[in-house]
Amino acid sequence: GENVEQHPSTLSVQEGDSAVIKCTYSDSASNYFPWYKQELGKRPQLIIDIRSNVGEKKDQRIAVTLNKTAKHFSLHITETQPEDSAVYFCAASKTNAGKSTFGDGTTLTVKP
Amino acid sequence: GAGVSQSPRYKVAKRGQDVALRCDPISGHVSLFWYQQALGQGPEFLTYFQNEAQLDKSGLPSDRFFAERPEGSVSTLKIQRTQQEDSAVYLCASSFSGTSGGPGYFGPGTRLTVT
Fold this sequence. Notes:
The complex is a heterodimer. Chain A has no helices and eleven strands. Chain A has strands spanning 4-7, 10-14, 19-25, 32-38, 45-51, 56-59, 62-67, 72-77, 86-92, 101-102, 106-111. In chain A, strands 2, 4, 5, 9, 10 and 11 form a six-stranded mixed beta sheet that branches. In chain A, a hairpin with a 6-residue loop joins strand 4 (32-38) and strand 5. Helices cover 0% and strands 48% of the residues of chain B. In chain B, the strands form two sheets. In chain B, strands 2, 4, 5, 6, 9, 10 and 11 form a seven-stranded mixed beta sheet that branches. The model of chain B has no long low-confidence stretch (mean pLDDT 95). Chain A binds chain B through residues 6, 31-32, 34, 36, 42-46, 49, 51, 89, 91, 93-105, and chain B through 31, 33, 40-45, 47-50, 55-56, 58-59, 91, 99-109.
């Protein structure tokens, strides 16, 4: 089955700096890669996703890149703000299947 | 509009009791997912429905776990003879299409504590 590894497990940055979180996956048939943000005690929220037919996607301060050959994808957050502090999860799945495999999460702390 | 809702939000069960967790997805969403999230970990897949059809139940940890979505909207996750290792947050999620690839909108979760 699919295995997703995420790192780092914790990340601390100064407000205004950039943050990068990386994930690798094992199943070359996976073609959908979403990222979720989960604030303490809250539900996960889908913040951005990428499908395997594109290499990069941007939405304001966040972007995701995908390297299919190397089987890894990354989340980039620029101009970080204290409200970006949360746990971020990557996931991998196939678009015609229901099962998503999640990484173990990265706790991002943005210091004002 | 209303998002995904789950009830109860908190459930305490004595070991051996049966529990039923309810999920109300966003109206019209075809896909419905159940995940289990232990403290400090990522969600673990349990099962997936497309309308009323349960297409994948490979993540259910044992035959004590059962899920249904009989009319293609509300879903119930039932756990029989609860054990302490069942303690976790159970998340429900839905997506509009059947080919989205993953959960789009999560509910707030049900925190189950087995004593």
